[in-house]
Structures are given as C-alpha cells and as structure tokens.
Amino acid sequence: MNSYSYRNDPIFLRNQYETHGKNEFPYIRKQEMDLNRIKLIALSDTRPNDRKENCQKIVHGFLDDYRIHVYYNNPDKHRNKLSQYRALISPDYSDWREMNTWREIESVAHSRWVGKHWQEAWKMPVIPSVTWSSPASFEFCFDGIERGCWVAISTVGSKLSSKAFLRGYEAMLDHIEPAGIICLGKPYPEMRGNIIYVPYQYPKHSPINQLDLPFEEYESVCFASL
What we know:
Elements: H1 3-7, H2 10-13, E1 19-20, E2 25-26, E3 40-42, H3 52-55, E4 58-60, H4 70-73, H5 79-82, E5 87-89, H6 101-120, E6 126-127, E7 150-154, H7 162-176, E8 180-184, E9 195-198, H8 215-222
Parallel strand pairs: 3-4, 4-5, 5-6, 7-8, 8-9
Antiparallel strand pairs: 1-2
C-alpha cells in the first residue's frame, strides 16, 4: 500500500461513521430488540457453526484487553462467526484511573468504533458497553451512545471500590437515560433502573476454572488495585 492509499484508507482514518460529543466518538444508536430470557456468551467462547442454543445468546466482550484488540485492529476477521449470534455487546476496553486521560479516551473510542461498525456495517443488534473510572472520566465516557439505548455494564472487580462505582453508575443514568441495563455480575442494592442481572461465568479459557476458589474471594485478591 502506497502513502496515498494508506492516507485514505478508511481503517486508518476511522471516520466513516456518525459521531457524537467533544471527542467525536462513533455514535451507537438505540435499536428495538427483545431482551427477554437473556443469556450471554464471551467473545472468547464463540466459534464458527456454533450450536443452535448458543446462537440464541448475546455475545459480550468483558474480557482482558489482549483478547479483544483484534476486533478493532482487524474488524471484519470474525464477521461470519459473530453474525450467527442474537446480538453483540461492544467490547469493554479498560478504563482505569491509573491511565492518563488520552488512554481512557482511546479505550472508549475503540469500544464505540467497534460497536458502531457491527451496527452499521454488519447490520447487527448492538448493545454498547459502558465503563468509567474517576469522576473526571464522566466528561467523555458516556458519549457516543444515544439516549434511551440499552447498555451493558459489569460489576466484576468493583467490590473494593463500590462507592466510586456507584457514583459513576448514577452519572451514567443521568447522561444516557438507558431503557435498561444488562448487568454482568451481581448488582448493588443501591442501583436504580431497569436492570437485568446476568451472573458472571468465567470464560472457558479462564485459568480460574481450574481453581477451587469462590468468586468473591478471587475478586478480592485479583481486583484489589481497582
């Protein structure tokens, strides 16, 4: 590819979709979808020609970043495989308070771009994932999502910083006014809204499946720095 072609490559520019907010994140639009009897499957557990019962599940990307980078870097590689499922939740790229602001913004941008690409180019039902860190992140982390969307969040890893998590949750409700919230992991009693609780299950690849540890104990050990 020569310099001119590269300069005009849509995958380099990432400017082909409608944007929203100060940072011009791709704008994920709300869609009508039936979210009764929800079951989730991790991106890392999807496979070509999956069983019919699995194809009725919604695919989520609440995974380590190294497992979801491919969906931004090579966005159509898994199109045929993922298109067989009921709906897709946009990948949840990390947004941690230890990051500089530009890295947090980058993570949100990647999540919105992949979600919008699935929605626009693949014509798939897409539920945007939402994550946040410190109150400073509230200025951008809810952008790129149409008000009234269904959204997906995870409480996994938030146990030792529940007050900070709940501040962000309330800010998310104010900014997005979601029609409903798919919550991977047990919701806190203080959480308001139309919440669908989906218990967390370790992906099949996870080494935690080999350990004899209750999830609460594992969470306290592994997410203590969050």
